[in-house]
Design brief:
Blueprint: H1 21-29, H2 69-92, H3 99-120, H4 125-145, H5 152-169, H6 173-176, H7 179-195, H8 198-203, H9 208-232, E1 237-239, E2 242-245, H10 246-266, H11 273-304, H12 311-336
Antiparallel strand pairs: 1-2
Amino acid sequence: MRSGTIAGVFPTMPQDESWDADASREIARAGGKRPSAGPGDDTGPEKSVVEPVEEDDELDEIEVVPVRRELSLAIAGFAGLLAVGLVLGALTSAPDSRLPYAIVLFGVQLLALLAWVMALHPPAVATTAGVCVAVALVADYLAVSGTRAGLLPLVWVTVGGFVAAVIGQLVRADDRKRVTDSWRTTLVIVAGVVAYAIPIVLTRQEVGTQALTVCAVAAGVALVVARATDAVFAKPRLALQVPRGATGIVLGAMLGTLAAAALGSRLVLPFTPAKGAVLGLIAVLIAHLVDLAVNFGQADRRLAGDAPTFWVARHMQGPLGAFALLAPATYALSHWFLT
């Protein structure tokens, strides 16, 4: 048994770190205890070193898009003019004088085509726009002079226009690569252009003119009130990147539904205040959802760093899209709810 060490008492175990002769003698003098390591001694027991976590001081700041009062009022005025044009055109259309209404709607179709083409950027822009212009003319002609005032001819025009636009996009190699990803965009543009021919069809049906009047007035009041309220009090904000306020949305929905209910009490059967309120509520929901979807889509493109759309097309897109989707919804309500 060796004195001064514990090697004879306990069998030696493999050590993680090597010991030299001087270190062994130091342990022997200390009675088998390892001397404490100094501040700069690397042979001491391992210490857990906690490295400070560097916080990212340069956090991405959320861009707060300001509400432009003049712009909100201009969009409100455009939405109001669009609603008035649809209503007055429907009320003044007669069996032998629907052509002026078709000419007005063709102008609206060109505006919608300009806004959607510049905002959605489909492949082969010139070809797609040319096909959509031809589709708009054919749809308006069938809506005015068709033997039966129905929706099916316009559906076939939409399908034919979509196929023609896709074929035109397959000509060039650069456009051909984008067809698979952008066919939905092409379908939206073609269907939106054809949708503005539906009001002509509604004027040729029994309750179509009244249904169009109620829905257009409700949607117009909702959009005008919402945008005008944003110009004065755009709070609480729906999102920091979207210059819209919840107060205007709620107030517009309430007043739009109230206006539809008031019209329902003035129109002849099958309209009642309750049915007018139902049509108005659906109309204001469609108008607000489409308008807000356009606003959030613009914010997404801005955050992604995409090039902004031409300002006229960008700000007309919401009301034009709202009334385009409202037209087939009004047709469905006039057939499945009122009759």
